[in-house]
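so the lab meeting is tmrw and i was supposed to have these ready like two days ago... anyway. pasting both below. for each one the top line is the aa sequence and the line under it is the structure tokens. i havent really looked at them closely yet so no promises
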Amino acid sequence: MFYDEPLYRPPAEANSVIIQATLGCSFNKCTFCTMYETKQYKERPLDEVFSDIDTLAKHYPHSTKMFLADGDALALDTNILVSILEYAYIKFPKLRRVSLYASAFNIHEKTLEELVLLKEKGLGLIYYGIESGSYEILKKIQKPISHKKMINSLDKVFEAKIKSSVTVILGIGGKKYSQEHITETIKLINKLNITYLSTLQLMLENNREEKFIKNFKGEFIPLSDKEMLEEQLSFVSGIEPLNKIIFRSNHISNSLPLAGTFPKDKARLVSELKLYISHYY
């Protein structure tokens, strides 16, 4: 089989079999993201998806995890997703979890009943990019969605007993909006029922910088590594979660890898950040 490249997956899915249920991203407007800019969104025919599952099942029959690519497979009709999940669990008898990327927009469009059904059929984890809790910043990066919609969407995921992994991007507001970015993101995170939380540092490819900065109307000044770590420190210091959250900051973009659980490890994470900043900067 051949993948329609480029192909992306979360770091935690390194040992998962990957099935492209869709190609590209159904939204594909975020100014910071180049992942699917070369692709037109397309839902793949079920027979092609099943054929890929058959092929991978022959080579990796003992796989326990599967990731459905590309950008947001949750955009698929629920009945199609159910068919894919049912077929995957038949072909991979040791399969324990299927995961996928999702946006607030397509979570919002799914009913709680649909999400419960997907959970029953084996959808175990949804990856979701918050990026920032600031609506002003979200408008500037062309991903405008309110706190209310994000909270409602992730509450549905939680109520359906599907795990969620959300991502925040450090530095995405630049110097001018740095405080707003962290303050509003803390407010949002502290209202969410989520399983995993991760941060990464803003990385813009050269062909994307001009488009990204244009929407800030000359107000975007990038943060240094130290300033991003200071954002990280403020962010970690403000987290008061509704429930236990497993935290990771181990993306290739991160200056300092961090790992812990909120609220148990909050003091240690704050201490590690302060020590690193004072020692290296």
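ok protien two:
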Amino acid sequence: MPEQEQNLSELKKVRLEKMNELRSMGLDPFGQRFERNTLTKPIIEGFEQWENQTARVAGRIMSKRRHGKAGFAHLQDIAGRIQLYFRRDDLGEEQYELYKKLDIGDLVGIEGRVFRTQKGEISIHVESMVYLSKSLHPLPEKWHGLKDVELRYRQRYLDLIVNPEVKEVFIKRSQIIKEIRNYLDDKGFLEVETPMMQPIPGGATARPFITHHNALDMDLYLRVAPELYLKRLLIGGLEKVYEINRSFRNEGISTRHNPEFTMLEIYQAYADYEDMMALTEELISRVVLKVNGSMQVEFEGQVIDFSTPWKRVQMLEAIKEHTGLDFNTITDDESARQSARALGLEIDDQASRGEVINEVFEARVEEHLIQPTFVYGHPVEISPLAKRNREHPELTDRFEVFIMQREIANAFSELNDPIDQKQRFVRQAAKRAGGDAEAHMMDEDYIAAMEYGMPPAGGLGIGIDRLVMLITGSPSIRDVILFPTLRPREQ
């Protein structure tokens, strides 16, 4: 057994002995309900009101030191930390013995008088203590640093205990989602839930996860997006709907991608992509201000300014600005492929002009998009669910929002022509038959629904995880997902 594991085993043995000692004293080391009358932070911030008052707090012991007949400890709860002062002459022998058996990591309930020490630290003079849960493992002393990052994700519970800033990220994540709901509810949108297991995965070009339903003896797919079901609701007369929930894509893992992620999708009948632009910048800027207290957020050494209005740029113009290629004059597939290869890009021999445009944009333009920017006018070939632009039918009324080189939102005027939609599905199905596992499947039921009449509409999708990354200054998507997907631990 390695020395470190042997030391941990010995420490656990000592803690187990303390647990048994508590039981021999007739005490339960894994206690019962404890009624608090405050958290730690209100005591610290409102000391004038709490001084000499009795506080009942509960939490985890994070430090401990003894000085003869007295001792100190720090207790941590969801709100913060506060110092505890134990004095044997006040507690009595039995209660002081309980204090002596305390280990860092133990959960306890405390009752005592609030005061300030001679050194000026706000503290609780403990009058009684009960064990709520004995910690059988020592907490890690050094948890920060790159070498521990994988362990932090695997044992998020420990990460939350010892790294207060991590807890703050997830509290802020919850606040962000709450503010999104508040905004949309105030605007008259209805929150709905749609299937996560679908017979046909639709709404995005992505490789799905496959599962099997035994009773029905049929394959099902974890959804890659809720889009087509939400549009069915528009057809049914629910004119303004949204959903915040998980989607799943069987793709690689990186600092920006997790196979299981949270999406916000919004659909509004009788609107278009310009309405979605206005909604997007108003929604995100409001959330940033409410949660962050400022329109400026620091991320990876850059200050992002979410103040509106945001920059707007047409995709082909952005490509021309950063590469010199003018796809308004490059009109056929072969010329597009040759032009992109001249930039040093590897382009598939079967790639269409629209697909080449997207490849060039991702490779040469995205890296320049730092401040919030709307990029609009995507090719039809990469936008199978978006309405064509009237003046340039090879393009669509679609936009993406980029911030710090990351796509944060995707939106368009929804295609509501069932004939056009079926033709696009047919082309996508042909690509899928040719080996493209991310191409869209034919969805006859969705086409049938559209044939009853789908209102013109605007739709918007926002990646919640990426938005939280930006607002909290987190460099990896795994920093904002409580339990990210990881490789199995090597034995």
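from a quick look at the 2nd one: The chain has 16 helices and 18 strands. The domain at 3-133 is CATH 2.40.50.140 (OB fold (Dihydrolipoamide Acetyltransferase, E2P)). will dig more after coffe
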